[in-house]
Amino acid sequence: MGHLIDELVTKFRNENIVGKFIYVNVAIYLVVALVSVFATLFNSLPYVVAFVRLFELPSSLNELLLQPWSLVTYMFLHGGLMHILWNMLALYGFGRIFMSFYSTRHFVGVYLLGGIAGGVFYVLAYNLLPYFSNSVGSSYLVGASASVLAVVMAAAVRNPSYRVNLFLFGTVKLITIAVATVLISLLLLASDNAGGNIAHIGGATAGWAFAYFLNKGTDLTRFLNATVDFLSNLFSRFSFKKKRVMKFKKTGKHSDDYEYNARKKEMQDDIDAILDKVKKSGYSSLSDNEKRRLFDASSGNK
Fold first, then answer.
1. 225 domain residue, yes or no
2. Of the spans 213-222, 249-258, 278-287, which averages the highest pLDDT?
3. Fewer Cβ atoms within 10 Å of its own Cβ: the N or the C terminal residue of the chain?
4. DSSP letter string over 235-265?
5. In whole angstroms, what is the distance from residue 63 CA to residue 151 CA?
6. What is the distance between the alpha carbons of residues 156 and 98, in angstroms, rounded to a whole number?
7. More confident residue, 262 or 31
8. In terms of residue numbers, what domain contains 281?
9. For residue 5, with 0-12 CB atoms within 10 Å meaning exposed, 13-18 middle and 19 or more buried, which class applies?
């Protein structure tokens, strides 16, 4: 088991940023799924559902205010095997295309920007459109599809003529895939997965905006990447300080050992001097303090 974990960690480290995000999404899905299975067996599933819900994006503004982190965490959760399978396949394929036009930092920024934009579109739609008025407070959003659509659209705007081989459809332009996906999402705004389709539109909009403004010299992901850098540096500093504290404690132990040995030698020298005095002048020549120190040493007291 330990060998398998080490191998997975090594593969994760060797992956590019697209692979790392896929690993993270899959790992989170597997943990939640396995915990849910065991919780079901012990009739404790409601507790797991309540905990996971803290990281899902609620449509209610009041609830969102209590868990603002869900605007980011929801894009790493998935509702089922097919849900994560399609999202990760799309992320793998289009992520590689994206990386041929942009950098690693751009991928991180666009993934987060698309997910956040999709979440904002979702919350706004559910609170502003009358159609969703009865669903506010009971609807939650999960999935990386908004982030994936941002990646697809950003790549399509950068190189609209890039051709992709699709099963059953043959060679299709990347811009055609992006536009078709947005149109399908618009057609399904009143479907059972209305929230997901709204998020798709938000993600695609964010991807388009990123590519458009980057071409104008403005990087919309700069703030997000700066935030990620800040959190990473904060974690690194915490880890470094922890190591320094551990090193300091270790150094302190050596210092304590040195001081202890020095005190022990000093006490032994003092006792030797008292014994020499006894040999020369007899026990009666000792002062009360010297007699007490000699007694303490002989009885083992410190």
1. no
2. 213-222
3. N
4. HHHHHHHHHHHHHHHHHHHHHHHHHHHHHHH
5. 29
6. 9
7. 31
8. 251-299
9. exposed
Query: Quick check: is 155 in a domain?
Result: yes
Write the DSSP assignment of 22-72 as a string of letters.
HHHHHHHHHHHHHHHHHHHHTT-HHHHHHHHHTTSEES-HHHHHH-TTHHH
| Same domain membership, residue 294 and residue 158 | no
Contact 127, 136 (CB under 8 A): yes
Amino acid at 214: L
Q: What pLDDT does residue 248 have?
A: 46
Between β-strands 163-166 and 170-173, what pairing exists: parallel, antiparallel or unpaired? antiparallel
- CA-based nearest residue to 74, from 106, 105, 118: 118
Report how far Cα 20 is from the mean position of its chain's Cα atoms: 11
Convert the pLDDT of each residue in 227-247 to its tens digit.
999 988 887 777 665 555 555
Helices (H) and strands (E) in the chain, counts: 12, 4
- What's the whole-model pTM score? 0.77
d(CA 247, CA 240): 10
Please check whether residues 211 and 275 belong to one and the same domain: no
| Residue carrying structure tokens 């007694």 | 295
